[in-house]
User: Fold this.
Amino acid sequence: MARTRVYRDGVLAAEGFPVAEVSDHLRDPSAVIWLDMCAPSEEDLAEISLELGLHELAVEGALGHRQRPKLDVYDSHMFLTVYAGAFDQETGRLDVAEAAAFVTGNVLVTVRKSEDFAIDEVVRRWDSSARLARYGVAFLLHGLLDYVVDSHFEAVEAMDEQVEALEETLFDERPIGPAEQRRTFEMRKGLAVLRRIAMPMREVVNTLLRRDGDFVDGAITPYYQDVYDHVLRVTEWVDSLRDLIANIREAHLTMQGNRLNLIMKRVTGWAAIIAVPTMITGFYGQNLPFPGFERPWGFWVSTFLIVLVSALLYRAFRRRDWI
Assistant:
């Protein structure tokens, strides 16, 4: 199911028209066209490729999966690959949605790999900043990049809240359970994925800004600069969170080891105290004559020794913080 729009002189002129009418609008030099395709077939892209003169490598990249975020510049157009991210707070996973775009002088063609890429959010951004529509394709591409980078920003912000919650568990008496450990592991994976899809965006936006006014110029340049600043913030935030979650993991392991050592120390101390009564009762339990044998005072002597030595051991162990 394709979606279409056409702008003329900075004003939305039509939308939702059939793809077959794109050729008619291309003949108008004042028209700026947007065409969106979700999971298109090779034949669908072949038709658009002939119409716009797209490079075969760019078409191949749009049909493929797991492309690296990038911006390829060809003679007549540019090819863009981006990923939007969404963080699931319940599982700690990062879900990504891939999209590609062909950018010409007056046409933007977006190719989504699935419905997970929220193109409606991109359209909402275009409508909310319609005053910039006079900048043509640069305006359309800015809305797309702004949505992608903002999805990265929202994901890393949600992850930061989760990491803060993990920090608070460091000094809990109760050790973290399997669910928290699983969430931590998923979050580490999510941060690695977010870094892979966010860091190349610096080069993508920077390439657009460096093109000496060929694409981004005039009053829309600060908007691209704002996107670039957000990209930098996201990448720096992701790196800091990766270091922080690694430190939290190490701290959890260290404190778990310390807690185990403390438990073993206490168990050993109590075992030493219990060993004394065992030794005394074992000695008096011999079937041999000894002082107090078969005498009442012998029982009381053994009981007194048990209490006295156990108390002395307990006091000595407590003074050394062994129990």
Observations:
- The mean pLDDT is 84.
- Residues 66 and 196 are 11 Å apart (CA to CA).
- The longest strand covers residues 78-87.
- Strands lie at 3-8, 11-15, 31-38, 70-73, 78-87, 94-103, 107-112.
